[in-house]
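re: ur msg from earlier - yeah i can do the magnesium ion complex, just paste it... oh wait u already did. ok heres what im feeding in:
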Amino acid sequence: MNVVSSTQQVGSFVIDTTEQWGRSWIFLLRTVAALIKPPFRPYLYMVQILQIGVNSMLVIGLIGLFTGAVLAVQGEYTLAKFGATAYTGPAVALSLIRELGPVLTALMVIGRAGSAVTAEIGIMRITEQIDALRSMAVDPIKYLMAPRLAAGIVAMPLLCCMFNVVGIFGGYAVAVGLLGLSPGTFMSQIVSSVGLVDVYSGFIKATVFGLIFGWVACYKGYTCGFGAQGVNKATTQSVVTASVAVLIVDYFLTSVLTRVFMK
Amino acid sequence: MISVRNVHKSFGSQVVLDGVTLDIEPGKTTAIVGPSGVGKSVLLKLIMGIMTPDKGEIFIEGENMTAARSESRKNHIRRSLGVLFQTAALFDSLTIYDNIAFPLVERNGLGAARAHQKVLDIAESLSLIEYLHNFPEQVSIGIRKRVGMARALITEPKVVLVDEPNTGLDPLDGQEVYDLINACKSQWGFTGLVISHELPEVFQVSDRVAMILGGRIISEGTPSEMIASPDAAVQQFLNGRTDGPIKIQ
Ligand SMILES: Nc1ncnc2c1ncn2[C@@H]1O[C@H](COP(=O)(O)OP(=O)(O)O)[C@@H](O)[C@H]1O
Ligand SMILES: [Mg+2]
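and the outut:
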């Protein structure tokens, strides 16, 4: 391994990565621009909200329910050490609303709908359907990407709300039904300790995650390589990239939002 | 008509087109032939404006596609074009009816009611009425190609581009696509550009033939001129021999 070839490899890696970044940002900007430029096709947006949002509801509800339930068990166990089981309600609610709701919803939607979006667009790319759109003077960014990005941004916070509500219900059922906490304490402690700022910060996170979901899934599909292998690679990359991005962005968003809302 | 002027296109270090110059005569059908991988589909994509040449210019009906910077300018020029793709490239989430109506509704902004009669007319001409409510995967590839042709022709383009009319088709379906091209040609009277590696079958739809090899047009003329060509590469390709100037990879 000589110095020249390894320098060359590092160089081309840096150039490729920078180029990818640039392209993906241009792609995002073009998609956002397409969102606000007529003609609008409301029907396409409805279909995507149905596929990405409505069709994810069952699975989001299910994991919300069990996440809330397990938080109640864990919360009660930990708080019992301090004789503070009365705070099980806030422990469940704050964990869900501030953190687990947005993150788990995003990861679940990425796994379920992100892979589907990437595969669909990737297949359209390799079967020349995207070329056909362009040849017919219909902009694929506007026709295919904008509705999916918008649906992600709209559906993610709504799914996250649902996740939180179902999760708190699951926590309530376990804490009150199985662990013998008083229903009044559980709910009243939630009401007195969860503030609007917690709801806002969860909502902002979910919206940003919706954007990441739509952006990565569409971009990976749009830039998919040749053949079945290309679609395979794009789909895997889409899920991995979006999930990692969500967790990284989550840390920074949490830090910033906590600062901002603390003031 | 289409005019291709000294067009170059490379992918990384791979030179695909190395100075292609060609005039497609109005009202006639020209076939571009050559072995697989010489860049025929790339040339088609350059003409459609969905790839940009490194050098050279392409004119469609007198308008310079390569000089069109914005997508909306390109879209304006693309209105003269209808394209039949290699595997038809129908939208599989739409019915055959909606596929045919697509360019009218989505591009020309025609209301569904006004598009309706045109869709029925063209479906009638191409014997597609009975399939209108099917989805593309429910019909054979031969029918899908007919739908692709209907979608290309419904906006009455001046130029029709056809990529590999009979890949993936059995000889009967393949023949049907050639008959389809000829029938549509006489009904709609467009300028045609057909890309193919199928010789001599493609001659039956061609008024003129151009052969592309090594990134350039090496021979151009009527089918009979091509058959009589003294060029060793042309003869090798026509007769499907493995020995000769064309290297088999
Ligand atoms: N988007 C692309 N990126 C890189 N290489 C490409 C691309 N499109 C085509 N090529 C290469 O250009 C060459 C010509 O391809 P093509 O035009 O499809 O050949 P054909 O004459 O069989 O239609 C092939 O070697 C192909 O690998
Ligand atoms: Mg080809």
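cool cool. Chain A has one domain: 2-262. ping me if u need the other ligands too
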